[in-house]
Amino acid sequence: MQETQSSTAAHTGRPVISATGLFTPAESITNAELVASFNAFAERHNAAHADAIAAGKAEALAYSSVEFIEKASGIKARHVMSKAPILDPDVMCPRLPERGNDEVSIMAEIGVAAARQALERAGRDAKDVDAVLCAASNMQRAYPAMAIEIQQALGIEGFGLDMNVACSSATFGIQTAADYIRAGNAKSVLVVSPEITSGHLNWRDRDSHFIFGDVATAVLVEDVGIAPAEHWDILGTKLKTVFSNNIRNNFGFLNRAAPETAGAADKLFVQEGRKVFKEVVPMVAQMILDEAARLGIDPERLRRLWLHQANAGMNRLIAHKVLGHEASEDESPTVLDTYGNTSSAGSIIAFHQHSDDLVTGDTGLICSFGAGYSAGTVFVRKRG
């Protein structure tokens, strides 16, 4: 437990990141396991529709492969909350039993686990936290807010609210928490991102069946006056949204499909991957460079980039544009290979797992980008 300054310290209005937390599901699916499941499904589908395929009235499903997945994404495995049903060719989606209203929900449960780790790493008691933001790409219900349930489970006074900006939810949450502190409305805010993204993925779609995994992260944003001696100064944050249909999910209580369209693909994750790649890479790279210039930071001297973990190729190009050279694994670490795309949690996992080795004065960037389009940057500097 780190040494923490007194919670009665004067409010400075200067936000910092005190600690992070991570919950990782015990189960993991390798590409080989995933390919075997998908190909078994494709074989059954093609056999069942053999006559229509032969007559040219239907197209045969193409098979997936480990080589295809790794070339397209860089992903080698992903953690999930419900492995067996996902790999069952007759099911191919997670099966998470519904819980009673008097039981903690699955999203709150994993969010609490990540939050408790962040609190422990900061030497902070939950009673000292003023607010909880549940920032994630999918919520398992409309209300009560997931954040309020997490708040209640942790024993936190104050308030909680949910926010959804898809893959940028966590960075949007960090800026919101920082703004609360700057305004004097809070001294300590938990930004919790429980991402059960296996539930919105179409595991029967060859072009995307390998993308997502499950996880939960937490970021404790606090006034520097109460933060641990070792922390991360938040030098500046920048958010950006541009409307695009190239990543979309139409599921919602106003868009529940009629029985004849209950399996409609657009009620799950859909994307135009090439368009996303072409449009998002230059947008995000320029956003980073513009914000670095505003803050007086030389981008080529950034010690580390913790980028959104969605696609290895996108990260390589963005890092190159920012740093001015091909980034090493040390400069732009990846967790994509073992976690898959975990939506808003991805850049936070990278920061959580690859930041302890930095020294006082080192400057880095947490960056997210995804559906919306949405993008967020958080420039930080190590202290302590």
UniProtKB/TrEMBL annotation:
Keywords: Acyltransferase, Transferase. Residues 161-241 form the Beta-ketoacyl-[acyl-carrier-protein] synthase III N-terminal domain. It comes from the Bacteria. GO terms for molecular function: 3-oxoacyl-[acyl-carrier-protein] synthase activity. SUPFAM superfamilies: Thiolase-like. GO terms for biological process: fatty acid biosynthetic process; secondary metabolite biosynthetic process. Residues 294-381 form the Beta-ketoacyl-[acyl-carrier-protein] synthase III C-terminal domain. PANTHER family: 3-OXOACYL-[ACYL-CARRIER-PROTEIN] SYNTHASE 3 (PTHR34069), BETA-KETOACYL-[ACYL-CARRIER-PROTEIN] SYNTHASE III (PTHR34069:SF2). This is Beta-ketodecanoyl-[acyl-carrier-protein] synthase. It comes from Erythrobacter sanguineus.
